[in-house]
Amino acid sequence: MSVSDKSEVKKSGGFGETLSVVVQALVLALIIRTLLFQPFSIPSGSMRPTLLEGDYLFVSKFSYGYSHFSLPFSPDIFSGRIWASEPKRGDIVVFKLPSDPKIDYIKRVVGLPGDRIQMRQGVLYINDVPVKREKIGEINNPDVTEQNRPVDVYRETLPNGVSYDTLELSPNSIGDDTRVFEVPAGHYFMMGDNRDNSLDSRFTVGYVPFENLVGRANVIFFSIAGGASPLELWRWPSELRLSRLLTSVNSEPPLKKLEAE
């Protein structure tokens, strides 16, 4: 007696299965966006020359733990942070604006809780000690500086050894001399690398609560100049910044890159 094989292959397809795949993909994307990485675009020039308008970044959501601002739409369902890890001096951070948490800002952490921060004649002082600052040259590239002239570039090195370039658009700007800011516990002092064109903790941004941190900027995955949209494929040949694609935000400073190219 033979045994016949009556097994069948189930036909795939159909609306229900398609819907299931779509829902699973959306849930996976939501988990990645909430817990791992979230894309952000740079809308302003406050972080020039490190970040340019038209840069698209991946921000690691897990770097500092999770607050309710880590969730889509920021529902106020818990306070504080889960699995908290404090930012390091020099980190480039996306955070919710304290005065309006619907708005995302991106700046560099220069002041930690308990620090005394002050600008004196364009020099950053941390706890009454000047941060190492040296003029290293000029950038004459409007795409980098947003200016149709050469712009002085200074390299700062923070006490923990983190180095980065800053622009000096004017030798006597309003933010070059400030009062002493005493950073409260649980807060951070943020500044833009484009020191003369950055609305940051020296001004109306103020001290940023730890809870407001969204994540640390890590990688530039796309970059396009001229105010072009990534969807405008016909502008890619002239506006795409190939040298910035898939580069680390914390790699060597921009002037070094320009000198090497």
TrEMBL record:
Compartment list: Membrane
Keywords (A to Z) from UniProt: Hydrolase, Membrane, Protease, Transmembrane, Transmembrane helix
Membrane topology according to the record: Single-pass type II membrane protein
Coiled-coil intervals: none
EC number: 3.4.21.89
Protein origin, superkingdom: Bacteria
Protein name according to UniProt: Signal peptidase I
Annotated organism of origin: Phyllobacterium leguminum
